[in-house]
Amino acid sequence: MELKEMIQQSNRIVFFGGAGVSTESGIPDFRSDNGLYKKKYPYPAEIMVSHSFFIQNPEAFFDFYFNQMVYPDAMPNEAHKALARLEKQGKCKAVITQNIDGLHQKAGSKNVFELHGTTLKNTCMHCHAHYSLEQTMENRDSKGIPRCSRCGGIIKPDVVLYEEGLDQKVLYGAVQAIEQADLLIIGGTSLVVYPAAGLIDYFHGKYLVLINKSTTDRDGMANLVIHDSIGEVLKAAVD
């Protein structure tokens, strides 16, 4: 059975996506040949986006963060738009994403669970004032560290760094959505990063679909596996 047919037969669709959803918007992933983990920096990317590195080396952290992880000009691609259309039709009940770029909301999706937070929201670590991405970028001092205009504290992105736990409320919402889904579409993720990858185990619905350029360890579980561009696949299935 094709994806289009599965979508037509389903009323509680949940989409769970990883970095591969945003690569078609020009945002690099982590593990591919030109991904973040291959960038030439003094430390491996996993260390540079860890909580302890952020606390100990804020200048180096923000240099890496603003140059490699923030894409304010990125626009939603066909995958984001197709999912927003599915939500408008009342079929897609939730989008669960490992991405921090806010592109699902930019495309029009309303019920989005951002497992790893977002670059679009930022909070002063001292007085807890809130800042947009634009304000955060404007408030950088001579060392490139964003400072709160009220108290001078460091503004931290609302992004889940390595060594930090996921937001339990977000995680619970994602688990609930998957448990209630009749069709779970997983796209653009290698399903190796936990706890996010473990979410698939909460699915007990009718159809499981995996869309990814490369194979995953979970391919054998799926009703349909598609190794192709996620944007083209979803556009064709939803149109």
TrEMBL record:
NAD(+) binds at A19, T23, F30, R31, Q98, I100, D101, H116, T189, S190, N212, I230. Its main location: cytoplasm. SUPFAM superfamilies: DHS-like NAD/FAD-binding domain. Its cofactor is Zn(2+). Keywords: Cytoplasm, Metal-binding, NAD, Transferase, Zinc. Its EC number is 2.3.1.286. Residues 1-239 form the Deacetylase sirtuin-type domain. Nicotinamide binds at F30, I100, D101. It catalyses: N(6)-acetyl-L-lysyl-[protein] + NAD(+) + H2O = 2''-O-acetyl-ADP-D-ribose + nicotinamide + L-lysyl-[protein]. Transmembrane segments: none annotated. InterPro entries: DHS-like_NAD/FAD-binding_dom (IPR029035), NAD-dep_sirtuin_deacylases (IPR050134), Sirtuin (IPR003000), Sirtuin_cat_small_dom_sf (IPR026591), Sirtuin_class_U (IPR028628), Ssirtuin_cat_dom (IPR026590). Binds 1 zinc ion per subunit. The active site is at H116. Zn(2+) binds at C124, C127, C148, C151. It is found in: Cytoplasm. NAD-dependent protein deacetylase which modulates the activities of several enzymes which are inactive in their acetylated form. Belongs to the sirtuin family. Class U subfamily. This is NAD-dependent protein deacetylase. The lineage of its organism: Bacteria, Bacillati, Bacillota, Erysipelotrichia, Erysipelotrichales.
